[in-house]
Write a structure and sequence with these properties.
The chain has 63 residues and is of the alpha+beta class. It has one domain (2-61). The protein is 43% helix and 13% strand. It is built from 2 helices and 2 strands, in the order αββα. Strands 1-2 form a two-stranded parallel sheet. Keywords: Hydrolase. Pfam families: RNase_HII. Residues 1-63 form the RNase H type-2 domain. InterPro entries: RNase_HII/HIII_dom, RNaseH-like_sf, RNaseH_sf.
């Protein structure tokens, strides 16, 4: 996650993170939300994108 944040062109004002364990990211406030994908649409959308990306990546590895 830290690599993804570092790659952003615009620094986020605040991070919403699904779960309750995260390594603190210096300078960016964050909120962890247990089962956040059921509460915040942005977390749900990010979860879908991540799972789709992972599925595509795994398919490429086994092609």
């Amino acid at each position: 996650m830290h690599h993804a944040i570092d790659s952003l062109k615009i620094r986020p004002e605040h991070l919403l993170i699904d779960g309750n364990r995260v390594k603190q990211y210096a300078g960016v406030p964050h909120t962890t939300v247990i089962k956040g994908d059921g509460i915040y649409l942005s977390i749900a959308a990010a979860s879908i994108l991540a799972k789709t990306y992972r599925d595509d990546y795994m398919n490429q590895l086994h092609a």
